[in-house]
Amino acid sequence: MRSKQRRVKVAKPRTYRPIHLATLMTLTVIAVAITAIAAWLMWDAAKVPAKLITSPDLAVRAAQLRVDVIRNILAVGAGTGGLIALFLALRRQYVKERVDYDDQAHKNRTAEDSRHDAAERRITELYVKAAEQLGSEKAPVRMAALYSLERLAQDNPGHRGTVMSLICSYLRMPVGEPYSVQKLISDASAGTVDYSRDSVILEDLEVRKAAQDLINKHLWCFFLPDGRTAHGEDYWGALDLNLRGAILIDWNLASCKPGNLNIEGARFIGNADFSESFVDGSIAATGAFFMARLDFTGVRADGMINFRNAEFCEDVDFTKASFSRVGVFLGAVFRQRATFLDVSDDKLLLSESFANANPKRPHVWPKGFRLVPTDKAGIGVVKTLGQMEKDRNSVSD
What's the pLDDT tens digit per position in 4-50? Predict the structure, then answer.
């Protein structure tokens, strides 16, 4: 799945500088200036000319007025100083609250980081333990490891890609020669298998089928009539599948939406069903070997679909497969019926592939292609109408 890393913005710590001496001196000068101006204005307004004092009673009143003016001047000075003290107190309280807030926020972040680190350590321990169990010689232990990984990925979406890669890597591990595995499965179905000799391989095949079922379960979705997809809680996202060289048994990726799909050199034992799946990327299937029927009907892919040199032992059906870019089949071999109904020929590189000239049921090629006989008995080569015309002209010349 293409994941985008987000840049996490780390908050810068706040710093508070102490008040400089120059700031305190400036505030003091302002307070003194305000007091002086107020004193001058009040004293000037309360000045009583001496010629108006005509009696002792008026003299007493004039003196009392001067006393009141001095008291008011002192009150103005005290009020101005109080305002400055209030400003300093408010600043001190603001700084204290901000420091307390930042300190608590830092503690919360530290606690959250500790919880996150503890959760990541626990997840890592579970992941490592499950990975070790997946390499166990005992099939029940490997089966338990698969379901432990599934539960881990279901609860932790960020680890789903890693878990899916680990499941795919298990399927890439060797299990035996494909035809021997196919015969063993047939014998097991018929009840003629020797369990004393082949029980270990049969148990491993069961674990592999469980791994395949997990892939199908967590990539399955359904398509709405308008072309959009919908899915349930079990869907893990369009994760890449690297199954290069894997041996896959009764493979089922129908109605699934993976990311890039790599099945180069993979061996498919039993039917392989990709029908109605949407690949959010490309399909790399160079040299893939399909031992039974392949159902590729309605498959869509955003990228290239490459079946170069692939071999199809039974019927293959590409009906209504959508090749958004190009579908490459150069050197592919169709040993039974090939169906390309309702497939656009302008997106196909199907020429120079080989097919059975006498299948049980006739091939259905895209409009611009035909099967031309070759020197090998029962084998034809697929060519475009333009190539056929060119060959006729060269023969006539």
Answer: 444 545 555 566 667 666 776 777 777 778 777 777 766 666 665 65
Q: Where are the alpha helices (DSSP H) in the chain?
A: 21-45, 56-134, 139-155, 160-172, 178-190, 195-219, 385-396
* Closest listed residue to residue 383, CA positions, set 396, 395, 372, 394: 372
Cα separation, 32 vs 40, in Å, equals 12
> What would the mean pLDDT of 220-240 be, rounded to a whole number?
84
Would you state the structure tokens that stand for residue 195, as one six-digit string? 């369990």
∠ CA 304-309-311, rounded to 5°: 110
Could you give the CA distance from residue 16 to residue 25 in angstroms, rounded to a whole number? 20
Largest separation between any pair of C-alpha atoms in the chain: 150
C-alpha distance from residue 244 to each of 1, 147, 258 (Å): 17, 23, 15
CB 240 within 8 A of CB 259: yes
Residue 130 is predicted with a pLDDT of 85
CB 249, CB 270: distance < 8 Å: yes
What predicted TM-score, i.e. pTM, was given to this entire model? Answer: 0.71
β-pairing verdict for 333-334 and 369-373? unpaired
